[in-house]
Amino acid sequence: MNVPATREDLMIVNMGPHHPSMHGVLRLIVTLDGEDVIDCEPILGYLHRGMEKIAENRTIIQYLPYVTRWDYLATMFTEAITVNAPEQLGNIQVPKRASYIRVIMLELSRIASHLLWLGPFMADIGAQTPFFYIFRERELVYDLFEAATGMRMMHNYFRIGGVAADLPYGWIDKCLDFCDYFLTGVSEYQKLITRNPIFLERVEGVGIIGVEEAINWGLSGPMLRASGIQWDLRKVDRYECYDEFDWEVQWQKEGDSLSRYLVRIGEMVESIKIIQQALEGIPGGPYENLEIRCFDRVRNPELNDFDYRFISKKPSPTFELSKQELYVRVEAPKGELGVFLIGDQNVFPWRWKIRPPGFINLQILPQLVKRMKLADIMTILGSIDIIMGEVDRLEYLKEVMGMIWVLVPILTPVWGITIGVLAIVWLEREISAGIQQRIGPEYAGPLGILQALADGTKLLFKENLLPSRGDTRLFSIGPSIAVISILLSYLIIPFGSNIVLSDLNIGVFYGSLFQVLLPLDFLCQDMDPIINIPF
Q: Which of 145, 347, 375, 469 is most exposed by smallest CB count within 10 Å?
């Protein structure tokens, strides 16, 4: 009987990018010692779409439909940060009613995002039932979005100076009914999940992040507040009208996956409190600052006068971004979502740099999973709450640059030898033309190298381009000898993965040089016995 041998080597396993628990196209290269995780390397770049460069070639209004693809589960926040940046850059005032509408939409979007985090997170650790429950409430949120914006996911609702449209009739009553219903749903989640012994066994004490560690890694959102730091940009920056409502920052001090779960459950309850207060106290007035449509615009005065007076057309706002720079941030469901904007007195941003929370929070994953079990990777990754639409950024460029640097030491000697041989052939043609004192196929000028290539190619294909008084046999085999010498020179070059130019022996170049110049010697001697070039 054959007894299988026991191997003690480390095993490298690929998780993703098609793994169902990767929450997108994320690839993890995991080094395992049995079931123990030794190392973990996240690989990005499968979904990078160049959103920052697109922003730098669009006006703000043109770019708004794109931003909902960053975090497609919390789309209102990407729209909010996109309009907040030019608003602060141009000191644009937002009407009170528009600010209240924004807060309501943002908190509904926060609830929808946390719900779609909760379901897959529970499925990752083996509980399938909550995954179906969360769609029940999430569909109600999307019904409210559809009634107000016309779209369920990609809304394009925020505008510079307000929102695109006012709330429709009866929407406030429906939203209040949803708030009352959702509180009972959260209680149901807590009874089903929070004290479940199997759930606690999987998440309690797993993926612990300390206070100093969270600060040093630049974490934000529930990842930071679960480690004992009461930091919420809605309280710190007091943007929109959050300071007018009574609500509490949710935080825990244990720093494990259970704490991150509790923070998000508590935030959904606090969001309902904010929405209820905003709906009951929403003021009247305009939903958009229409005056800023005619400020700082590239416009034709005569055309605009005609539009305003006779057509009554609502012009498309193309704001000029003043020559300033600023950083704007909001408290998104996953953490601090920021944009660094530089204006250049143009309708297009000169620089648009996005600070996604998922990209920053994901960098601590290798630190958390080390010395843990393989099954704990899904628990820790799920507790971080990433979305690959905003995470994928620069890894693709990094891989391309890495490939280029691998090819550079290989292509450098190849191109060097090729250019050297072409220069020698061109010199041979110039000497040959000078000897013959005629203008023909051997004409040497600015395009001498190209002429040499054309002549050599034709000669190889048996074209009759022989000069007068030239030896037929020598001119027939001369180009063949030159081409063969080039190919032989490539064969003796020691190509490798770590080759650099200094690794090559200079004798290779001398050998190639002599092999190419030998036919030149025969040609010159045959054409004029007086001329003799010693080699």
A: 469
| Closest of 373, 483, 425, 405 to residue 34, by C-alpha | 373
Give the amino acid at 331.
E
Tell me the C-alpha distance between 475 and 389, whole Å: 63
Q: Which of 297, 209, 294 is nearest to 256 (CA)?
A: 209
Share of the chain above pLDDT 90, in %: 43
CA 402 to chain centre: 17
Tens-digit pLDDT profile for residues 151-178: 988 899 999 889 999 999 999 999 999 9
Backbone angles phi, psi at 338, to 5 degrees: -130, 160
Contacts of residue 162, defined as CB under 8 A and 6 or more positions apart, other chains included, come to 94, 95, 98, 286, 287, 288, 289
Helix (H) or strand (E) holding 336: strand 335-342
Q: How far is CA 5 from CA 2, 60, 148, in A?
A: 9, 64, 66
Helix, strand and coil percent figures for the chain, each rounded to 5: 55, 10, 35
* Span between the terminal Cα atoms of the chain, in Å: 73
- Three-class DSSP labels, 79-135: HHHHHHHHHHHCCCCCCHHHHHHHHHHHHHHHHHHHHHHHHHHHHHCCCCHHHHHHH
SS3 state at 356: coil
Tokens (6 digits) for 307: 């539009």
Residue 197, token pair as written in the block: 């012994």
This prediction's pTM:
0.71
Question: What is the DSSP code (8-state) at residue 69?
Answer: T
Instruction: Tell me the HSE value of 111 on the side-chain side, using a 13 A CA sphere.
Output: 31
- 8 Å CB contact between 274 and 107: yes
Q: pLDDT digit string (tens) for 457-483?
A: 555 554 455 555 556 666 666 666 666
Question: Could you give the count of Cα atoms lying within 13 Å of 405 in the half-sphere of its Cβ?
Answer: 6
Per-residue pLDDT tens digits for 374-404: 989 999 999 998 888 888 765 444 555 566 6
Burial of 267 (C-beta count, 10 Å sphere; 0-12/13-18/19+): buried
Gap between the Cα atoms of 513 and 523, Å rounded: 16
How far is the C-alpha of 219 from the C-alpha of 357, rounded, in Å? 8
